């Protein structure tokens, strides 16, 4: 019983962490390296994450400097950034790639908020799916007479409490992201 609940809580925590990473990838008014976490560049024929190809510096709020470890990867990195949904046009000075983030329009902010709400809902669904699978396991144990009704109902209450806790964490992340997006 406790193994089922611990496993479910671990998976729910992973869903919250994934939602946190997804939120980090949504661009706000400020530049931060996490915006580039999901981008892949074609490096010698293999899709490679940008973090493995370069270092990122944020000298100003809306500027990010990307210094590739290998200069031959510059065009691939530029192409990956240009093709992404970040809305950034990188410029190359031969040694570094400079990305200046344009100011977010109100329309774009609303679009990003809608995207954040969608990602939050995906996280909530993931947490609820974990609860459903754990509840199914508990019901199976009860049906096979390995545990009693009291234990099963106690386990379901614990799973519901854990689900509420993790859904609340996702809601808090969403609230923070919305506030960040609405700040000018």
Report on this model:
It is a single chain. With 184 residues, this protein is α+β, with helices and mostly antiparallel strands. It is 57% helix and 15% strand. The chain has helices at residues 2-24, 74-83, 106-143, 149-182, and strands at residues 40-43, 46-49, 54-60, 63-68, 91-92, 97-100. The strands form two sheets. It has a four-stranded antiparallel sheet, with helices on one face. Helix 1 packs antiparallel against helix 3. The termini are far apart.
* Order of secondary-structure elements: HEEEEHEEHH
Oligomerization category of the chains in this entry: single chain
Individual helix count = 4
Mean pLDDT: 89
Question: Into which percent range does the helicity of residues fall?
Answer: 55-70%
Low-confidence stretches: none
Strand content: 5-15%
Question: How would you sum up the major sheet?
Answer: 4 strands, antiparallel
How would you describe the shape?
elongated
* Beginning-to-end CA distance, first to last residue: 49 Å
- Taking all Cα atoms into account, the compactness measure Rg is 22 Å
Strands ordered across the widest β-sheet? 3-4-6-5
The total strand number stands at: 6
User: What structural class should be given to the helix and strand makeup?
Assistant: alpha+beta
Main location: cytoplasm
Protein name: Ribosome-recycling factor
Family: Belongs to the RRF family.
Organism: Luteococcus sanguinis
